[in-house]
Amino acid sequence: MGEAALILAALSAASVRDPNALNRSGKGDWCYAPTQSLSASEKRTFVGEIGASAIAAERRWHVPAPNLAAMAIQESGYGTTRLAVSANNIYGFKWPGESLARGLGKFVLSCQPDWDTGKIYISFATRADAVDFVASRLSQSRSYATATARYWTDSAPERTATRRRSLGFARSRRTITMLPRTRFGRSPSWRATRSATDPKTSGFYGSLEPTVIRPADNEGTSARMPRSLIVLAAVWLVAGPLTASPASVKSLTAQQYIQRDGLDKGIRNFVAAKLKPRPYFMGRSVNDCPVVTPAPPGFDGAEVVECTYTEAGLDGWVRLAIPTAGKLSDWIIAAAKKCRKPEVCAATLATYTWNSNNYSFPIAGNIVEPGTSAGGQSSDPTNLIFVYGVTIARPSFLDGKTKYGKDAKGIANLPIDDQKRCSLSLLAVADGDIPEPVPLDTNRSCTKLIPAQVSRPAAIRQDIYIAYGDPTKSRAQRFSAAGTSCPASARKVEWLAISKNGFIDALRTGDHPLYDAAARALDAGESANDLGRKKCPKSRSRR
């Protein structure tokens, strides 16, 4: 059968519908999947609608329309996922906080599995609103500003020529390919690539543009997507004659790796795949994260680096201990084998701790994360201070909102030199050393260690350690050592030593005591969401 016949056969495929799919109870990875299989004509209708919205969004925000359309197709299953049907959220965009959501509604994805934290998503009035919102977030992100400007500049001659020909799309020598990431919601990251027909090009969103077609501006006319593009985009996921299938391009879940390869090999393959690209705080570094030599005492089994980076418009400095994929896998596998259902336990541990912190262990410094990570109300990016894997209350010296003003996004930004001096002072205090004086820190706030709750990379809080930690110690002993998560006044600085020593012992023995505690908690019926930060009730004043 020739290629043309294959395409015609794919386009004539009948719809497959399950009237009960949207009402399925329970939780699982199926929650993200399309709820029905559409006919070719229905797919054409979706692509035509989204294509017109993407063209309008490109004119307004200068983000490439083909990529916006390709993302919507892939993320929403042609508009058939639960999020797409119930909330018009065709990009799987999580709730970013009130300030960024700009009055948009909320939708709770109740069937989302426990390993994926954050079940609240944006609810859009229309699909066009979703396209416009995602395009606006991409265009306003400092991480994508250069790529957006370059695309708009490079495509100007083609837009002009195409407008003269009154065509909707034109061929291009270059395009912008989008790859998914999940740091703040599910917004994409993008990079310039060669033609999508080049076999060296990677990225599934780019492969949805087999002829590298680009939208024209079409100013003054009603924007519409030509039939040629509708057919190409609709055929791509159905027949896939020009590239690998989506299943082979999209990464597998930990559970899928285990089902395919078995427990040990599956976890090793999953962790290796996650750690293959550099974490965002290393990939965005401006100093290439030089290795610290010699390594701090006890950290010989890990690579220790110092990174200066920019994320979401904020600057950060951090000293990180990076265990190998092999060591991390050893910790997860050893912990999971203490559970009655080791495969389930391993998949949950591997996924939960990756989503929580990218398997990172910040020895000292700043990591930029959503404010909700530290108990705030907003998901706006925030500088969080760490010592030995635990968040520390920000010293008043680094109170950027009052001392340094705000950047264009209204978020406090902290000078790198001040971050480093203060973080190293806090680290010295944690080690029992005399810290170097920090200039202008008149009240010595950089010597005051006030720990928060969660220890990385196992991502458990004090209460979980007390209930399920070191079995050679009594619960009273664990309580005495760690303090409790709530109230904040009951937390102890010794929690930092437990976090540090657990990591160092794991490097030496291959068995991480805090991963073991997390596994015992899961085995006892705790969910992954129960392991991390706990919202403490507000204390009532006495009358």
Explain the overall architecture.
With 543 residues, the protein is α+β, with helices and mostly antiparallel strands. The chain folds into two domains: 28-249, no CATH class; 254-530, no CATH class. Helix content is 41%, strand content 13%. The protein is built from 22 helices and 14 strands. The chain has helices at residues 3-11, 40-61, 65-76, 82-87, 98-101, 127-140, 145-154, 156-165, 204-207, 227-238, 246-249, 254-261, 263-275, 280-283, 325-336, 342-357, 400-403, 416-430, 462-468, 475-482, 494-509, 513-523; strands at 16-17, 36-37, 105-108, 120-123, 169-171, 175-180, 188-193, 213-215, 303-311, 314-322, 361-370, 381-387, 390-392, 451-455. The strands form five sheets. Strands 9-10-11-12-13-14 form a six-stranded antiparallel β-sheet. α13 (263-275) runs antiparallel to α15 (325-336) and α19 packs antiparallel against α20 (475-482). The termini are far apart. Mean pLDDT is 75; it is low at 1-16, 162-250 and 401-411.
The first-to-last residue Cα distance is 84 Å
Number of domains: 2
- Tell me, rounded to a whole number, the average pLDDT: 75
Question: What is the makeup of the main sheet?
Answer: 6 strands, antiparallel
Instruction: Give the low-confidence spans.
Output: 1-16, 162-250, 401-411
- % residues in beta strands: 5-15%
Estimated structural class: alpha+beta
Q: Count up the helices.
A: 22
Order of strands, widest sheet: 9-10-11-12-13-14
Shape: globular
Total number of beta strands = 14
Specify Rg, calculated over alpha carbons.
25 Å
